[in-house]
Design goal:
alpha/beta, Aspartate Aminotransferase, domain 1, Aspartate Aminotransferase, domain 2, 2 domains, seven-stranded mixed β-sheet, four-stranded antiparallel β-sheet
Length: 433
């Protein structure tokens, strides 16, 4: 007797590019160890105030001291909402008029954004607009919800610098596709590109001119490495600079990156539009609430001074600046001709073999090779390297080549001793492929 069929969506579903290498590697039984730079799974400890709450979950005055874990309000614990806004304010940003909905990681906030702003499922009406190379989960969430997504494409120069498309190109795409919302990632995942304030203002002006929502994914806010720069944010754009920007702004927040708590799964949808906030909370009631224990742990940051939080940002920046610089330089030295994107922000680099690869090189095939059979002996121990193929981060127009065919993303998330192996592993695996 035949079994019931899957939905068309499930039948066609493939793993995310950022999880693909890990899924394949876990099938191996040959004792090879992996340096996993395919996914941004941070291995640093959480902020001390969060650690303290974790250690004392069962002790008074923890709300879990009696072993009871109840639902929270759908909008999130008041303390957790305050933590989100306190963090934003600690970057010198105004929080008056902002409302926060606490979500299951930034991923749930992305889905709420798409469902709440884009056109009807199955149509091309009011798509979401992103700037390629764009974080793959926006495309995955659009597909899951049946919403349409369009993109404009930035380019990676041979000098390792990503550049935004010309503003006229973005404007042309807006007039052609009539998107509902433009998503920007000021500390970009996957590219490491940093959007300075002037870039944010220019994009905000387009959003006002064409009556779009503007959403800023600020998962990596404060992780920038340019001397003299300041934190870039949608909340730094003033009504005086861009008249009409108020009431159309959204930011996506998360505990995962700056706070080193990926597995806590705490995020937030923050907006200066009260109607959007109210309707997003109503939509999220179907989820009942976000993880109560994670909310409590993250809520500790509601009580930290801005001085303390600023010091924490400096500590995180110092760590990443050192390791990003060392590994990216090591990659260039280990494989001459390799293009490595400039580590200006976030915790990623894109590597591009277009100048040294044969014409038929395919990054996904290379990634699968590394995950399934790659092996490099280092001091008598077998290792391989997991990276993400970049093709899934792009959405080229029909007939256009996908720049991701020769590109891979590296996340600087493993401990320092393992990250130090990356240049040798990548070069060795590439030469043996």
């Amino acid at each position: 007797m035949p079994l019931p069929e899957l939905s068309e969506h499930y039948a066609s579903r493939q793993p995310s590019a950022i999880r693909l290498a890990q899924i394949e590697f876990l099938k191996r039984t040959d004792g090879v160890k992996a340096v996993n730079t395919a996914i941004g799974n941070v291995s640093l400890p959480m902020h001390p105030a969060m650690q303290q709450r974790l250690r004392t979950l069962g002790d008074p005055p923890s709300p879990f001291a009696q072993g009871v874990v109840k639902y929270t309000p759908t909008v999130g614990l008041e303390e957790t909402q305050h933590a989100v806004l306190n963090i934003i304010a600690s970057s010198g940003l105004p929080t008056g008029g902002l409302s926060a909905l606490v979500t299951d990681g930034g991923s749930a906030a992305m889905e709420l954004l798409i469902v709440g702003l884009c056109g009807a499922p199955g149509t091309t009406d009011k798509p979401l607009m992103v700037i390629d190379a764009a974080y793959t989960n926006y495309k995955a969430m659009a597909k899951r919800t049946g919403r349409s997504i369009v993109s404009v494409q930035r380019s990676l120069g041979s000098d390792g610098k990503f550049s935004l498309p010309d503003i006229t190109e973005i404007e042309s795409a807006i007039t052609e596709h009539r998107p509902a919302c433009l998503v920007v990632i000021p500390y970009d995942n996957p590219t490491g590109h940093f959007y300075d304030h002037q870039s944010m203002v220019a994009l905000a002006e387009l959003c006002v001119q064409y009556n779009l929502w503007m959403a800023s994914d600020e998962a990596y806010r404060e992780l920038f490495y340019q001397d003299g720069a300041q934190a870039s944010s949608i909340w730094r754009i003033t009504e005086q600079e861009v008249p009409g920007i108020t009431g159309r702004r959204i930011s996506i927040e998360t505990a995962s990156k700056v706070w080193n708590a990926c597995g806590l799964r705490i995020g937030a949808l923050v907006t200066d539009n009260e109607t959007l906030h109210t309707k997003a909370v109503a939509e999220y009631t179907a989820n009942l609430c976000t993880n109560a224990i994670g909310q409590y742990i993250f809520g500790a940051l509601a009580h930290e001074s801005h001085t303390d939080l600023v010091a924490w940002y400096g500590q995180q920046r110092g760590y990443y600046r050192e390791i990003l610089t060392a590994v990216s330089n090591g990659l260039r030295e280990s494989l001459p001709g390799l293009i490595v994107s400039s580590p200006d922000a976030s915790i990623y680099s894109v590597v591009d073999v277009r100048d040294i690869a044969q014409d038929d090189f395919d990054a996904q095939a290379f990634v699968m090779h590394c995950a399934q059979q790659g092996r490099v002996d280092i001091d008598g121990a077998p290792w391989t390297l997991l990276v993400s193929p970049m093709a899934g981060f792009y959405q080229p127009a029909p007939g256009e080549a996908n720049p991701g065919r020769t590109q891979m993303r590296i996340a600087y998330v493993e401990p320092k001793d393992r990250l130090a192996l990356v240049p040798h592993l990548f070069a060795s695996l590439y030469r043996s492929f």
